[in-house]
Amino acid sequence: MRDTSPSGKKGCCERYSQGGAEPSRPELSGNWLVEIWPIQWSLFMPEIHPSAQVSPGARLAEDVTVGAFSIIDGPAEIGEGCEIGAQVWIHGEVSMGPGNKVGYGSIIGADPQDLGFDSDTRTRVALGEGNVIREYVTIHRATAEESGTIIGDGNFLMTGVHLGHDVALGDRNILANNVLLAGFVEMGNHVVAGGGCAFHQFIRIGDYAMVQGLTGVSKDIAPFCTVGQFNRLAGINSTGMRRGGIGPEDRREIKAVYKILFREGMALGKALVEVDTREWGIEATKLIEAVRNPSRKGVLTREG
Fold first, then answer.
1. What percent of the chain has a predicted confidence (pLDDT) above 90?
2. How many CB atoms lie within 10 A of CB 281?
3. Could you tell me which of 222, 155, 147 has the C-alpha nearest to residue 190?
4. What does the pLDDT read at residue 45?
5. DSSP string covering 229-258, please?
6. Bridge partners of 132?
7. Does position 94 have pLDDT exceeding 60, yes or no?
8. Domain contains 93
9. How far apart, in whole angstroms, are the C-alpha atoms of residue 250 and residue 198?
10. Which long-range contacts (CB under 8 A, 24 or more apart) does 114-122 make?
11. Annotated catalytic sites, by residue?
12. Is 187 part of a structural domain of the chain?
C-alpha cells in the first residue's frame, strides 16, 4: 500500500529520497482536497487523473487507477489492481481487496438512509477481491459503532444496484440492474437476482437462490430455491446447483427435502418433523436449517 499522506515517511516517496533530499512540499490550507492532487500526480500517484481528489489519509496500492473527477475523501484502503472509474465517490472507512472494478458514478461508503443515524458514528464498508461494480451503484456504510457493510469476493453488481446499510453479501452473486437490498439483508453465495428485485430489510437469502426480475421479497429465501413474482417460491434452482458443482446425490437430496417442506401440503412444523426422520447430507441440511431457523420475517413458501 502507498501512504498518500504529505507527512508520511514511507511509500513511494522513498524512491525520490534515496538519491538526494526529499522534494519539498507546500503547506496545505484547509482546502486540501483541491491542493493535494498536483502533488500526487507529479510525485506519488501517476495513476490518478489530475482532476481526481484523494485524501492524504488514503492508502492506495501502487497500480491502482483513479478516473477523472473521482473523490476518495476518507481513510480508505484500496488494494492492488483496483480500477476506480470516473466520478466515483469513496467516502469514509472503506477497504477494498485486490482486483475490484468500480464503475462511473458509483458511491461507496455514504451515510445510511436511517433517520436516527448520527453521522459521527464510526462505521465502515469492506469489500473482498475481484468484485465488479458497474455504473451508479450505491453501497452505504453500517449504522452501529464499529460495524460494517460487508461484500465478499467475485460479485457482479450491475448498473443501479443499491446495498443498504449493514448488508452482508457473500461471494459470486449476480445482481442485475436496479436490484435493491434494504438494511441488514444477508445474502449467501452464488445468488442470482433479476433486474428490479427488491429485498425487504432483515431477511436472509440462501446460497444458490434465484429470483425472478421485478420481484419484491419480504421473507427469507431458503438455499437452492427459486422465487417468482408475487413473493412466492417457484421451485429448485437445479441449473445453478449443477453449474456450481453440487453433485447429483446432493441435488437429489435437496429436491427430496424441498418436496417434503414445500410441496406435500404440510404445515412447516410438521414437515420439519418429517424430514428429521432420516439423515441428510451437508447441502440438504442447509435447506432444512434455513427453514428451521429463519429471520424475524419468516421463510417464503409456495403460498408466500
1. 83
2. 14
3. 155
4. 45
5. TTTEEEEE-HHHHHHTT--HHHHHHHHHHH
6. 101, 156
7. yes
8. yes
9. 30
10. 114/143, 114/165, 114/183, 117/143, 117/165, 121/145, 122/93, 122/146
11. 165-166, 183
12. no
